[in-house]
Amino acid sequence: MPDTLNKKWQNVWITGGSTGIGRELVSLMDGHVAHIAVSARSAEKLSELADAGKTVAAYPLDVSDKAAVKTCVTDIEDAAGPIDLAVLNAGAWKLMDVAEMDLAAVRTGIEVNYMGVMYALDALLPGMLARGKGHIAIVASVAGYRGLPRSIAYGPTKAALINLAEILRTELGPRGITISVVNPGFVDTPMTRDNPFPMPGIIPAPVAARALLKGLVRERYEIVFPLGFVLLMKFLRILPNAVYFWLVRTIMMRGLDRGA
Ligand SMILES: NC(=O)c1ccc[n+]([C@@H]2O[C@H](COP(=O)([O-])OP(=O)(O)OC[C@H]3O[C@@H](n4cnc5c(N)ncnc54)[C@H](OP(=O)(O)O)[C@@H]3O)[C@@H](O)[C@H]2O)c1
């Protein structure tokens, strides 16, 4: 598959590429795409990636800074031409009991997970629309399918991204822009490493990145992994509310309380 990547994309931008799924995706694409711009806040980690990589360039960025996102996109396009694939993957997660709500963390979730994507769209879309082509992949989560316990600072932002992707697909598809929404189940990354509860079906980050890349190459609308766990979450989505809430109370809350 990597041999076909350079025919598909010349300039790829990956946010949240300093660790986890994003970092593994950068490694998979390295050397097979002419320019891979990688962003995150940890400038040092990005420099290491760029130094070790063949076609990786570091663009440190806080995605919740609107002006910085715009400047970053301009810098990437000045250096390597139009971005033809943007993987908007940066994300922030914090386990939180509603009774101990930390509004600052809720705001961070919204600013990074949702507004970070909106700022990127604002910077990317004028160019893509003018060219009548481009591919934007938004990394959401199966946590956006239904309201999950202790997910108040995260789930709603991912539900918003899933909804946003449907709007984008509807409006931008006919104008030549491909939209993908990526809904992972549990992946072993720094984000999940400290989770104090069982994570069914958890997969290593390199496996997740391979599934993500495969979906991108095929221009899939919804890219999911690992399939078994995602199917279970999709099943929960279609359950009547009463059954869903009963399951959450009897199974999920117990798992969470055991781990707490
Ligand atoms: N792991 C899972 O089980 C799982 C499941 C479903 C969805 N996801 C989603 O997958 C994506 C990648 O997560 P991951 O699991 O690979 O976790 P991760 O290793 O913690 O990666 C998160 C990335 O986002 C970056 N980031 C965080 N805040 C940022 C900000 N304000 N500006 C720019 N970059 C920022 C982090 O880098 P810096 O700290 O250097 O900025 C890091 O590169 C996230 O959107 C996450 O919500 C993960």
- Please state the oligomeric state of the protein chains shown: single chain
Distance between the termini: 42 Å
How would you characterize the largest beta sheet?
7 strands, parallel
The radius of gyration is 18 Å
Bound ligand species = NADP nicotinamide-adenine-dinucleotide phosphate
Strand portion: 15-25%
Name the strands of the widest sheet in spatial order.
3-2-1-4-5-6-9
What fold name goes in the CATH topology slot? Rossmann fold
Whole-number average pLDDT?
95
Defining key terms:
binds NADP nicotinamide-adenine-dinucleotide phosphate; seven-stranded parallel β-sheet; 15% strand; 260 residues; Rossmann fold; 9 strands; two-stranded parallel sheet; single chain
Describe the structure.
This protein is α/β, with parallel strands linked by helices. The chain has a single domain, classed as NAD(P)-binding Rossmann-like Domain (Rossmann fold). 51% of the residues lie in helices and 15% in strands. A seven-stranded parallel beta sheet has the order 3-2-1-4-5-6-9, sandwiched between helices. Strands 7-8 form a two-stranded parallel ribbon. The mean pLDDT is 95. Bound molecules: NADP nicotinamide-adenine-dinucleotide phosphate. NADP nicotinamide-adenine-dinucleotide phosphate binds at residues 15-22, 40-42, 61-64, 89-93, 112, 139, 141, 184, 186-187, 189-192.
